[in-house]
Amino acid sequence: MISKKMENMVANSSAIRAMFEEGNRLAGIYGAENVYDFSLGNPNVPAPETVKDAIRELLNEEDPVVLHGYTNSNAGYEDVRTAVAESLNAKFGTDFSAKNITMTVGAAGGLNVILKSLLNPGDEVIAFAPYFGEYRSYTNNYDGVLVEISPDTETFQPKLDEFEAKITAKTKAVIVNTPNNPTGVVYSEETIKKMAAIMEAKQKEFGTDIYLISDEPYRELAYDGVEVPYLTKYYANTVVGYSYSKSLSLPGERIGYLVIPNEAADSEKLIGAANVATRILGFVNAPTLQQKVVKKCLNEKTDISYYNRNRETLYHGLKELGFECIKPEGAFYLFVKSPVADEKEFCAAAKKYNILIVPGTSFACPGYVRLAYCVSYETIVNSLPKFAELAKEYK
Amino acid sequence: MISKKMENMVANSSAIRAMFEEGNRLAGIYGAENVYDFSLGNPNVPAPETVKDAIRELLNEEDPVVLHGYTNSNAGYEDVRTAVAESLNAKFGTDFSAKNITMTVGAAGGLNVILKSLLNPGDEVIAFAPYFGEYRSYTNNYDGVLVEISPDTETFQPKLDEFEAKITAKTKAVIVNTPNNPTGVVYSEETIKKMAAIMEAKQKEFGTDIYLISDEPYRELAYDGVEVPYLTKYYANTVVGYSYSKSLSLPGERIGYLVIPNEAADSEKLIGAANVATRILGFVNAPTLQQKVVKKCLNEKTDISYYNRNRETLYHGLKELGFECIKPEGAFYLFVKSPVADEKEFCAAAKKYNILIVPGTSFACPGYVRLAYCVSYETIVNSLPKFAELAKEYK
Fold it and tell me: Which residues belong to any copy of the Aminotransferase class I/classII large domain (chains A, B) (predicted)?
């Protein structure tokens, strides 16, 4: 009796989540220290101490009626939105103000708000494989059609020729995610410039507006000083979806924002629509205490050296065992080539060693598996002998 | 370039919100103390001190990785769901366990989750006027059709004959909201039993499942010892949507839950669908800190005597001025008859005295206006001379 759309969704439900729940089951049997759960992007680095301080300060300073009340605008507290805008301006030389910022229930909430605001049934949304599988669900929520660009498994940069060919008059949005989940790849400035030029030309060709949606939960997680270009500076019709889930280790608190710049087509209308969509999708407003927390922590960063040590150890460890993998420049994922064509078979084999990894099919890229290395260093170190045993099966 | 559905939504955007934003504008000009803003159900009673204590304790006691992390299930922390279930069982003699509870981003999030889980395009959802206007938007989100039962302006109890006549083979859900927004009326046990009997008979007649969705943000706000029946006990296919927005004065924090009982048709599937809907709509999980807070505050209640004083003062004050109004038994709203047929005209007249009230059209009940009396007592007292001036216009 559940809806037909949901029947399909439940049937194809997230393998990531299933794996994560399996991890908890195994931890119950074998003890958490004997399970190597690389399934979910749930940060193991605690929120910085300033988050705790910020919450304590807010409890002392703020009137609880304001602190826990509805915000005047569904877009969030004006002071928080101003602070976010100014912080972005200082970092990226942009020119945003409060009106350009809509506080959201994480990036997932923000993506739903913007897709609800934009999509008519049958509109196309382009994503570059491998991509976060939820993009398909979010697009489907508003009867859009997800159009996939096949992966370049050499570099995991977007295939721009195929991209250009697949843009149609129905293309309403293009989602990019850099640093990327699941590959850790960062799109270079050159790539972004080429993408922007293609989209500009296609907008002219079709007389349409094509929005670039930049999903940026991993922006702050970039290693070795690599630059992550700020996309509004390269393409006018850009909307940014940000989350503090990873940068402040607050994934459960559901706090992020959308940036809709004045330069975007129909900016005023789109901002108004995002406001209404926030309300009618049932978010109403981003959680208020956390809005005030992030305002106090705008200059705070998660301890990236922690993830970097994990990255180096796991990457080199797996390479030494003969696994093939591109070295990630950002985020906290390794995207490893499965030693057998059917990577689900490989995931099943890994589970025998209590290693939990996610099949690439979940990211529209079969033949690969994703490892989330936002785990403890001990998990990484202790998993390597298990990976060695696993590797032996494929020698 | 925004979606056609959103064009309509923005055009018909919430009059309540517009009024609330107008209130803030007027407060900026005349000073907050000279504006009588009865527009929004934003509680003026601060969250109980135990909420503050709970947050402080959680910061000291809990591992931040757990406290702010993704929950194992999208339905929320198992311990929180167990505690909510046990608390309901103790209060209402029900038999729920953790699996029956899905923690949600407020009641608005919960209603979206359950409607997404249930509705196929064209399915009908029945609501009794006057009703919270957002039900129409939530239904429309999933291409359902809202079917309205006209108001009984004598008692504001549901018109059961019209209800019976309007149930069809396409009726998928019926939303009730008791204590009611905007009338403050509580549906009696007798009414509920009659409704249940009608729905049972119609399910048999059509061979369908018709879900009763009980939207209960005002459950704890009942005056004079009036009983608010717990609906799962009267009708098997009941789903409850609850929110702590009013009971703990946490509307901005977006925390509530759904109850899907084992007795509901296709319960297992519906619980699974709600889980997936929570994820793909972008909620992912209810905010984690607040989940833990409500667990610690399950026996806490807002100070209802505060609202009761407001209720008595405003109700009697308006009656003495000649306004017509049913005395509310719950919630924090008065639904007052407009002295002129076009209640928008009356709202405009009220605004001249800095009195902000919401037209009944927003609740599918023109000719009436809603006053939210979750304001300070001073606002009530000081507004009465202004209402007296307003009343004179209609003598």
Answer: 35-379
Contacts for B222 with CB less than 8 Å, ≥ 6 apart: B179, B186, B228, B329, B330
Contact criterion met (CB below 8 Å) for A293 and A79: no
Segment A99-110, tens digit of pLDDT: 999 999 999 999
Residue with token string 């009794």? B128
Question: Does residue B102 have a pLDDT over 80?
Answer: yes
State the pLDDT at residue A8. Answer: 87
Return the structure tokens found at A298: 């705008």
How high is the pLDDT of residue A11? Answer: 80
Q: Supply φ then ψ for residue A275, to 5 degrees.
A: -60, -50
- Mean pLDDT calculated for residue range A109-114: 98
Q: How many domains does chain A have?
A: 2
All residues of chain B having their beta carbon less than 8 Å from the beta carbon of residue A120 are: 3-5
Query: Pick from B107, B372, B155, B147: which is nearest to B257 by CA?
Result: B107
* β-bridge mates for residue A256, sequence order: A104, A243
Evaluate whether B180 touches B335 at the Cβ level (below 8 Å): no
Taking an 8 Å cut-off on Cβ atoms, the answer to whether B252 and A1 are in contact is no
Is B70's CB within 8 Å of A252's CB? Answer: yes
Q: Which two tokens stand for residue B226?
A: 């009036």
User: Do A153 and A251 sit in the same domain of this protein?
Assistant: yes
Residues B288 and B213 placed together within one structural domain of the fold: yes
The owner of tokens 């293309």 is A171
Query: Contact at 8 Å (CB) between A78 and A101?
Result: no
Residues B53 and B41 in one domain: no
Q: Tokens representing A297?
A: 């922590």
CB contacts of B63 in chain A (<8 Å) are 46
pLDDT at A14: 64
Rounded Cα–Cα distance for residues A63 and A69 (Å): 10
Cβ contact, residue pair A273, B110, below 8 Å = no
Those residues with Cβ within 8 angstroms of residue A25's Cβ, 6 or more apart along the chain or in another chain = none
Residue of chain B whose alpha carbon sits nearest to that of A143:
B142
A105 with B106: Cβ contact below 8 A: no
Q: Residue B174: pLDDT above 90? A: yes
Q: Are residues B263 and B239 in the same domain?
A: yes
State whether A1 and B269 contact (CB < 8 Å).
yes
Residues B241 and B212 in one domain: yes
Q: Which site among A24, A57, A65 would you substitute to test the B interface, given the most B Cβ atoms closer than 10 Å to its Cβ? A: A65
Residue B374's SS3 state is: coil
Structure tokens at A175: 């989602």
ipTM over 0.85: yes
What's the CA gap between A162 and A35, in Å, rounded? 41
A115-124, A149-158, B1-10, B246-255: the lowest-pLDDT one: B1-10
B336: part of which helix (H) or strand (E)?
Answer: strand B333-337
Do residues A288 and A361 both lie within one domain?
no
The whole-angstrom separation of Cα A139 and Cα A137 is 5
Residues of A in contact with B43 (CB under 8 A): 65, 69
What residues in B contact A3, CB-CB < 8 Å? 116-120, 123, 142, 273
Query: Span A201-205, mean pLDDT?
Result: 98
Give tens-digit pLDDT for A170-179: 999 999 999 9
Residues of chain A with Cβ-Cβ distance to B282 below 8 Å are: 105-106, 108-113, 138, 281, 283
Distance CA A120, CA A142 (A): 7
List CB contacts (< 8 A) between A379 and chain B: none
- B43 and B54 share one domain: no
Structural domain for A317, as ranges: 4-48+302-392
What is the domain-level CATH number for residue B331? 3.90.1150.10
Is A23 or A16 the better-scoring residue by pLDDT? A23
CB A160 within 8 A of CB A195: yes
Residue from A4, A5, A300 whose CB has the most chain B CBs within 10 Å, to mutate? A5
